[in-house]
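Residues pack. Consider this:
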Amino acid sequence: MSGGGNEMNWMRAARTWSLAIVAIFLALVLAYADLGKVAHSFSGIRWQWAIWVPILNLANTFVEALRLSVILFPVKNELRVRNCFNSTLIGIIGNIMLPLRFGDGARAYYLARAEKIGLSHSLSAVALDRVADFLVFFLLMALTAVLHPFPPSVTKMGIAAGSFFAAAVAVAFIFARMGLRLGAVDSAGKIRRRIAEETNKFVAGLAVMRKAGLLFPVLALSALSWFLRAAMVWVMFEAFALDLPLMATPITLILLNFGIAAVGTPANLGGFELATVAALKLFSVEISVALSYALALHVLEVVSIVAVGSVFLWLEGFKTGEVLKTAREVEYPD
C-alpha cells in the first residue's frame, strides 16, 4: 500500500501543479478579456447551431465504440457493441473526473469484465484504439500544414509529438516481443511464463493489425471520428457568427487537442480554453469572443456527454460513482 500511497501523492502533486499553471495562464487571459463582451457573446449564441454540438458528440462516441468493437473482433467476434459503447462512456466520464486519462484504464477494465475477456486483450485493444486515433490526427495535421502552414512553434510541437508517438509505439512492440521470448525458453520460471502468457493476450488484442479487411474500417472510423469533432468546432463558429476561413476549423481542432494533451487536468479544464483562445487568435478573433467561444464549446461537450452518459449507464445498472471505483481497481488490483 505504501507504493500505492506514493503513486496517489504523485498524482495529486501533478494535478495541483497542472491546475496552478493553468490558473496562472487563465488569469492572464482574463486580464486581457473584457468580461462585458464575454457576456455579450454568450447572449448572442445562435442555439439552432449550438444544439448540434451534443448531438455530434454523442454520434462520435458511438463511432468510437464501433471502432473498438472492430479492433476486438479477432478476439471475440460476438462482441456486443452496446458494451463497447458503455465502456467508451465510462472512459470519457472517467477522463473528465480523473487526471492523466485514467478513464482509459477504467474503460478497458469494464470491457474485460462485461465481455469476459482477458484484461490484457482489453488493454491492448484500447491502446490500439488510441494509436489509430493519433495516427489519423497526425495525418490530419500533415494535410492541414500543406494547405495552411502552421506557426513555427506549432510545427516544432507537432514534429516532437509525432516523433514521441512513433517512439512509444516502437518501444511497446519491442517489449511485447521480449515478453513473448521469455516464455519460449524451456527453463522459464513461473513468473516469466506468466509474463509471456499476459503478453500473448496483449499481442492477440493487436491481431486486427494483421487483417487488412479490418484495419481499413478502423482507420475509416477514426477519420469519421475526427470529422465529427471538426464539425463540432465548425457549428460553434456558426453559433457565434464567426466568419472564418475553412482552414480555421482543422487548425482550431489540432491546437485544441495539443492543449488538452499537454495539461492533464480533470475535464481538460483550462487547457481546453487556453488552446482554443490561442488558435482563434491566429485568425484575429478578439480574446473576449474567443474565450466565450471556448467556454461554450467546452460546456456543451462536457455537460452533454456526462448528463446523457450518466443516465444511460444508470439505466444499464452502472452508477457514475463506480467509474472512480473501477479506476482504482485498475490501479490497485487485488
Notes: Residues 182-188 have pLDDT under 50 and may be disordered. Residues 41-331 form one domain. Residues 54 and 304 are 5 Å apart (CA to CA).
